Amino acid sequence: MQTANWRILSLPRCAIATVGLVDLLAALIPWASKARITHDQLGVALLLSSLSIAYSIGTVTFERVRVLLAKGTSPSMCPNLLATWTFAAAILLPLRLAALVCVIAAIADWPARNVARQTDPHKYVYSTAGAVIATAAANYLVATTQVPYPLGVLIAAIGYVVVGAGLIALVMFASGQGRNVAIFVKPETHRIELLTVSVGLTEVLLHSSHIPLIWLSLPAAIGIQHWSSRDALLKAGALPEPMGEAVWVHVSRGLVAGCGLSAVLRVDTDSPKALRELTLNIQSGCDALGQYGTGLAITLVDCPETHADALADRLRSALVEVCPGAKVAVAASPRDGATLDALLVSTEADLIVAAAGDPTRSRPQE
Questions:
Q1: Contact assessment for residue 146 and residue 97, using Cβ atoms and an 8 Å cutoff
Q2: For residue 98, which of 46, 93, 115, 351 is within the disulfide window of CB 3.0 to 4.6 Å?
Q3: Which residues make Cβ contacts (< 8 Å) with residue 57, sequence separation at least 6?
């Protein structure tokens, strides 16, 4: 999980020392393990690491949107999905290998967290350190708890979640934000983490039963990511109906500011037929659909200008049949501006030109 509302250089000295100590412990603890590493364990580590990398590549846009929508709320938590593989690694691998899987998964996940102008790298380092220490706790519990194996794994899972949450609470108290610890009693704070730990538990049980289906954790994690991103947009008022203009503008400002490649596509009508065509082209869980002016607008996330232009052309062709006379305009960042306001000005100019009967774009073609 990632903590909110603290900056490393502005923290009290006690908090800076706490962050540094946790990071140092995470770097040193894995080396306390002297267990031998076998070829089979190397294979499991490679598999878990590969799955985490494939997941991060496939869901980077979903996660960027969820992180952006979580920004600006106080207090807030933005759980990550590292536990999908790091918990399984804690149970199945020696500590040094498990810690390596944690680091690889965190590095692969970083592009989703590295949102332009909103990046807190020290926070992610602390979060990753917490995952390593939680992994060490789970590894220790499963090795020392004198109970039947399945129950021991469940106890390790509880320890993993408690230690991870405890480290976040620790830095909150150290930075004078102890009142924010109340968010830990909210179910929504833990539901993604619990889901991912459950996937990790399933991986462990499959491996222990010699069932070679650990790779199924990849579609499971992608499904959780898609659901959580869609849920974040739902809370913003985006789905399943278009969000109101004020909400759409608020959400879109953050999306455009945080994504180097984004676009705004507008249609000058809000007719049900136009809405249906827009909905068919939306990237579910990422793109924000809303009302703007007398028409509709979509904020397209991680969308290069060529893709945005192609989508606009497809919509123009489709609307000729179902909604004659509808005008479509698109503006892409950074080509047409780096802010939502600049993109809206560009699309407004295009719509005015199109309404006046000029089918060409208002800016010269390159």
A1: no
A2: 93
A3: 108
Rounded Cα–Cα distance for residues 2 and 23 (Å):
14
- Chain-centroid distance of CA 253 in Å reads 18
Report pLDDT for 135. Answer: 92
CA distances from 178 to 60, 184, 326 (A): 32, 11, 54
Q: Which residue has the tokens 């995952």?
A: 131
Query: Could you tell me if residue 11 is left (phi over 0), alpha (psi between -120 and 50 degrees) or otherwise beta?
Result: beta
**What digits encode the pLDDT tens for the residues 94-109?**
999 999 999 999 898 8
Identify the bridge partners of residue 267 per DSSP, sorted by sequence position.
Answer: 296, 328
pLDDT at 61: 74
What's the pLDDT at 79?
A: 59
User: In the structure encoding, which two tokens stand for residue 70, read together?
Assistant: 């979580």
Residue 171 and residue 23: Cα distance in Å, rounded? 12
Stretches in the chain below the pLDDT threshold 50? 1-5, 72-76, 117, 237-240, 359-366
Phi, psi of 320 (to 5 degrees): -60, -35
Count the neighbouring beta carbons within 10 Å of the beta carbon of residue 99: 26
